[in-house]
Design goal:
This protein has 450 residues and is an all-alpha fold. The protein has helices spanning 18-44, 46-53, 59-75, 77-91, 93-113, 117-120, 123-153, 159-167, 172-188, 190-203, 205-217, 223-230, 246-277, 282-310, 312-334, 339-367, 373-389, 392-403, 408-424, 438-441, 446-449.
């Protein structure tokens, strides 16, 4: 159990009401869902988009072009992290999240309204690239912004659980998007879906964003941010410039490297791994992966709740070492080529990663002072997600091709997990800590300005 010395001894004067907290949690969960739905629905529509926007005699070349545009979204994330991180610290969490969800919804709906190559020629893929750039740019501000907004509203003793609950909705879109595309295909028929039905999956992003916008407009700014803003001085320092913030940047990058690699491996690559490497049928691969993601969805809550009771470090380090010890045998089990083995291997992976994600989300929020929490965490987070998450499927495929071993990506995962452990082993315990750090309550010292 967390030592009393870590408990918050100077909480914000105003605690949110239960109705306010419900709106905060609802808006954050919906925002997480919309962000990742908008990203994965593009991947699930890759084949039809390739035909309509990148016509080619070689269908493989068309699909590669589509995934090249998919990668553009990742390349925009560091820039989005810088812009939205700074805006979130200056304008407030609520205003940031309003801008993000409107931008993301507009970009996704825009893809559903685009003319095809056959209608406007080369302008069609250029407009598609622009929409993907806007999507990636906006996505950079949602996850950290939502997690911080929830953490700064949540009761101290349940902060981990509340953040984990809303963050867990990032795993739902992978399953929901697949089911929705399957529903549209079966309902409309393949010909109708290919002609115009695919647009529905993108157009629905607009109404979802409007619902999220309505809820966010009804939510107050976080009391922690308001208290920090009242004490803010004009000579704040950017993240990484002060002794207290630089370690938080390094630790966030290390933790986010493992989190992003794990997320895009399980949700973005594993189905391909099972169908091409383990020779599993597409339906069995999708079903087993969907079950594993559902288990990880609930494992988030376990990780968050346990971290509230036992502390962030014990749960975080246990999950990291579970990755180091269990991931390789679980990957080998999943590669055996049967539905049962694929499901069993993914269940182990989903549970371990779910617990890790559940404590990871709140930990990186607590590491930073409120005055530069969004800029520090968002920039670090998105840098790691671009480098490690964006390359996860490609690097896994390359490793298998070069080594001839289906479990070679598991060794890479273990190495990243061990490096993450080395980077964060000296991390302070943050469970029960005051989100208003000392820097938030006083003017920066002379040593901090150097």
């Amino acid at each position: 159990m967390v030592s009393p010395t870590h408990r918050e001894n100077n909480p914000p004067a105003v605690q949110p009401s239960s109705s306010t907290l419900r709106r905060v949690i609802t808006s954050a969960a919906l925002g997480q869902f919309v962000e990742w739905y908008d990203f994965v629905i593009y991947a699930y529509s890759a084949v039809i988009i390739a035909k309509l926007f990148f016509p080619s005699e070689d269908p493989v070349a068309g699909v590669l072009a589509v995934f090249g545009v998919y990668a553009v979204g990742f390349l925009m994330r560091p820039l989005g992290g810088i812009v939205f991180g700074l805006l979130g610290d200056r304008m407030g969490r609520r205003q940031l999240l309003v801008i993000v969800i409107v931008t993301m919804g507009a970009a996704t709906m825009g893809i559903g309204l685009l003319p095809t190559y056959g209608q406007v020629g080369v302008l069609a893929p250029l407009l598609l690239i622009l929409c993907r750039m806007v999507q990636g740019f906006a996505a950079a501000g949602e996850t950290v912004g939502s997690n911080a907004f929830v953490a700064e509203h949540a009761p101290t003793g349940q902060r981990g659980l509340y953040v984990a609950f809303t963050y867990s909705f990032s795993t739902v879109p992978s399953v929901a998007a697949a089911l929705f595309v399957l529903f549209l295909t079966n309902t409309l028929g393949e010909a109708t879906y290919n002609a115009w039905g695919w647009r529905i999956a993108f157009l629905i992003g607009g109404p979802m964003a409007l619902i999220g916008l309505y809820i966010r407009m009804k939510v107050d700014e976080s009391p922690v941010y308001e208290a920090a803003r009242a004490a803010r001085t004009a000579d704040d320092q950017p993240p990484g410039r002060t002794p207290s913030t630089r370690p938080a940047v390094v630790r966030t990058i290390a933790l986010a490297a493992l989190a992003s690699l794990a997320f895009y491996t399980l949700s973005g690559y594993f189905v391909t791994f099972l169908t091409t490497g383990a020779n599993l049928s597409s339906s069995d691969a999708l079903l087993s992966n969907g079950i594993a993601l559902s288990i990880s969805f609930m494992a988030f809550w376990v990780g968050g709740a346990l971290s509230d009771r036992w502390g962030r470090k014990p749960v975080l380090f246990t999950a990291i070492w579970a990755v180091i010890v269990l991931y390789l045998p679980a990957l080998w089990l999943a590669s055996l080529g049967t539905f049962a083995s694929a499901l069993a291997g993914q269940l182990v992976i989903g549970m371990v990663f779910g617990v890790y994600w559940g404590v990871f989300g709140v930990t990186v929020i607590e590491l930073f002072p409120t005055r530069n929490r969004l800029s520090g965490a968002t920039i670090s987070w998105n840098l790691a997600y671009t480098v490690f998450g964006g390359t996860a499927p490609l690097l896994a495929t390359w490793l298998i091709d070069r080594t001839g071993s289906l479990v070679s990506p598991g060794i890479y995962m273990m190495v990243i997990a061990f490096i993450a452990f080395l980077c964060v082993r000296g991390m302070p315990e943050t469970a029960g800590s005051n989100l208003l750090h000392e820097q938030d309550r006083s003017q920066p010292s002379a040593s901090e300005r150097l």
